[in-house]
Amino acid sequence: MTTKNLLVGQSGGPTAAINATLAGVISQAQISDKIGTVYGALNGIEGVMKETFVNLTESISNTEILHSLCQTPSAALGSCRYKLKDHNVCEEEYEKIVAIFRKYNIGYFVYIGGNDSMDTVMKLNQYFIRHQIHDIFIMGAPKTIDNDLMGTDHCPGFGSAAKYIAATFTELVCDTNAYMQKSVTIIEIMGRNAGWLTASSALARVNGGKGPDLIYLCERPFSCDQFLQDVRSKLEHQSSVLVAVSEGIHDENGVYISEQSQPGQTDNFGHKYIAGAARCLEELVRKKIRCKVRSIELNLMQRAAAHIASNTDLIESQMLGSKAVAAMLEGRSGEMSAIRRLDTEHYQIEFCSVPIEQIANQEKKVPLSWINEAGNDITPELMNYLLPLIQGEATVRYNNGIPIHLKL
Amino acid sequence: MTTKNLLVGQSGGPTAAINATLAGVISQAQISDKIGTVYGALNGIEGVMKETFVNLTESISNTEILHSLCQTPSAALGSCRYKLKDHNVCEEEYEKIVAIFRKYNIGYFVYIGGNDSMDTVMKLNQYFIRHQIHDIFIMGAPKTIDNDLMGTDHCPGFGSAAKYIAATFTELVCDTNAYMQKSVTIIEIMGRNAGWLTASSALARVNGGKGPDLIYLCERPFSCDQFLQDVRSKLEHQSSVLVAVSEGIHDENGVYISEQSQPGQTDNFGHKYIAGAARCLEELVRKKIRCKVRSIELNLMQRAAAHIASNTDLIESQMLGSKAVAAMLEGRSGEMSAIRRLDTEHYQIEFCSVPIEQIANQEKKVPLSWINEAGNDITPELMNYLLPLIQGEATVRYNNGIPIHLKL
After folding, report:
1. Tens digit of pLDDT for each residue in B189-198?
2. Mutate which of B42, B299, B302, B303 to disrupt the A interface (most A C-beta within 10 Å)?
3. Which residue from A40, A253, A401, B35 lies 20 to 30 Å from A283 (Cα-Cα)?
4. Given this model, what pLDDT does residue B271 score?
5. Given CA atoms B211, B214, B218, B220 in this order, what sign does their dihedral have?
6. pLDDT tens for residues B238-293?
């Protein structure tokens, strides 16, 4: 049997589970006779073009190291936000990539990332088809705390971020309720266009706790007047009000709440740089309601907090990495491994793979029917969707009092 | 034997371990024949004066509930920031408190809190002495994430906050190093006048990880020019620079870095309200160095993150609660239970109690000799002091994927 090597890269924003997917890729490759060496490209597709590879077959030499990899947050191989040029316009990058694949005898390429990264998979796949390259298989493996990928019930990394957010909200409920003084605490959660993570704050209520009092997702236009009215109404009956807001909340014209105070910066993919929604609302409350008010950004912690990863998320993430490899070994290419949730009473899923065109550059938002009528909370349907994803605690190994992380 | 009842209150800022101290008070009282009912005053000394008491002997009826109490962050009894008037000026409050103590047959009073709360213990004790009240014993039990109490080697709540900070830094190191792009991340840590918590960020290095690149404690005057020079120097050799700063960093004239941009608000104890040091430095880096820059406040999470509490901290916190009760049963009053670290090769402590006058209204800062010469890092001596305090992981119980918290 001719063996070919496998190359894997990671791309886009870090998560607590992207390395579990990497571990799934590595272990699945290790048990196949068709695959020789597993290489990792440092910093995604940029590392492919620069030939900065690590030999993962050598680095991840035992299950102990594999376990450490799984509990290491962020991208162990490093990440990038590089967008390939359109191959109709410029084929140079593609030729270079194929030449490097040939040089390293790469027959299998897995790219782990979100919707921007799936753009890379799609373009490469389209180039391969156009040039009749049939001996290099390419698959995407999903990853994003935003949970906004089409074609999959939910995304690796999301469950862990959701668990961190839910646990943090239960803790913040305890903290902010310690005083009798009237106070408002506004917590900003990641999510430009999709409010899945913000919705997860509601999970803080599952054990009967208070949780957030108000939840504003970016899917519904945000009104500052309505917000003030909602907060005032809550303050009539309780001393502490806890508010969850998506970073991407905006008015009905699409203008971000924070946009007035920040210059319009954009990243490589043309996304507007936004931050500070909670901070703007803090100022608003201070001026208009005049009570004690604090804003909190969960910031990078929500995507990096591997120490409180969801075990469900870690296991599924690993399986999705394995699935991407298994699919290629069965002859599939130009697809992304994905999760299908079955219509059963209890949470049950199966793994599948989905054509990449259905996924790249698209965003799956929270259905409006899963937001309550007042636009300041979520529905029980959304709670039911979210709850299974944060189940189980990762068995994190510590040394000297802090979690062990792997450095490749 | 005549039994008297015990009253306990919590005061000051919440921590992840203050309820462990409460648990220690309750369990020690439960095993003494001299103590009848254990009452908890809601919202500290304010609850004493309002007679808002809960019967803890009834509420904490089994060890299961006691365990849940230990893993619940913030103050289960609620907190306050109330300062008793000087009894030389106004005795009214003191007379009221004593009358309520008599009404409930209180012979033992434990107040769990920081240096402001110990002011309450001291004043009450001085009033008791002046009025020859010898049948009500009063003790303080320490608590503060700031670790700034005199008379004790370290403070309950600090170790857990330090563990959260160290673990979070290891995760943020992974996250911020994922990209090749030059970037600066500035993390603001609680501590107005004492940099113990900020110093704890260095613990992220104990397993050989990178940890923070620069650490600025509030004990040393902060120079923006020196800061920029330090950051530039680091950026020459690495892509990502991680900076830890105390919220209370200030220049050599005592002017907080953030003071220009914020109006001077003060709390009930006359402390200046400050926040946003990291945010100011973010702007500075953006303007002067012009690279990608982000500021992060660990905010309330650093004092509320019970899910990653230090087991050493939880056990010691519980013991200090028990010690406060044990000391009263042995006839001591007007003191605070405390920890003495022995001069041994391995970490070893003993529990003692210290006259309250040595503690109230004072602050223990990081010795200047434990800060490096350049003023941008800590010394190995400080690392040795900190490391034992974050050891061990609490066995946190979860339900439905989130930690179980007790609501009294």
Report:
1. 999 999 999 9
2. B299
3. A253
4. 54
5. positive
6. 999 999 999 999 999 999 987 755 445 554 555 554 558 999 999 999 999 999 99
Contact B12, B157 (CB under 8 A): no
> In the prediction, which pLDDT does B276 show?
87
* Closest chain A residue to the Cα of B171, Cα to Cα: A304
Whether residue B194 contacts residue B145, with contact meaning beta carbons closer than 8 Å, is answered with no
Q: Please confirm, yes or no, whether B377 is among the known catalytic residues.
A: no
**What is the spatial distance between Cα B238 and Cα A401, in angstroms, rounded to a whole number?**
27
CB atoms within 10 A of CB B186: 27
Q: Which of B82, B357, B377 lies closest to B243 in space, CA to CA?
A: B377
% helix, strand, coil for chain A, step of 5: 40, 20, 40
Question: Per the CB < 8 Å rule, is B178 touching A78?
Answer: yes
The Cα A7–Cα A98 span in angstroms is 12
**Token representation of residue A208:** 């009967």
pLDDT tens-place string over residues A334-377: 999 999 999 999 999 999 999 999 998 899 999 999 999 999 99
| Cβ–Cβ contact B117 with A under 8 A | no
Query: DSSP assignment, residue B308?
Result: G
Q: B200 — contact with chain A (CB < 8 Å)?
A: no
ipTM above 0.85, yes or no: yes
Among B170, B178, B303, whose Cβ lies nearest the Cβ of A175? B303
Chain A residues near residue B297 by CB distance under 8 angstroms: 296-297, 299
> Residue A106: which H helix or E strand, with range?
strand A106-113
CA-wise closest residue to B84 among B31, B120, B136, B57: B120
* A342, B301, B406 from A339: Cα distances, Å: 10, 32, 36
| Interface contact A308-B306, CB threshold 8 A | no
Contacts of A288-293 with C-beta under 8 Å, sequence gap 24+, read A288/A228, A289/A184, A289/A228, A289/A231, A289/A232, A289/A235, A291/A181, A291/A182, A291/A183, A291/A184, A291/A235, A292/A181, A292/A182, A292/A183, A292/A184, A293/A183, A293/A184, A293/A185, A293/A186
* Contact status of B174 with chain A (Cβ, < 8 Å): yes
Determine the residue of chain B that is closest to A310 in CA distance: B401
The residue of chain A nearest to residue B306, with distances taken between CA atoms, is: A171
Residues A46-64: what's their mean pLDDT?
96
Q: Which residues of A touch B207 (CB under 8 A)?
A: 399-400, 402, 404-405
pTM (predicted TM-score): 0.96
pLDDT tens-digit readout, B112-135? 999 889 999 999 999 999 999 999
Contact between B195 and B365 (Cβ < 8 Å):
yes
Active-site option among B116, B146, B213, B377: B146
**By the 8 A CB rule, do A202 and A215 touch?**
yes
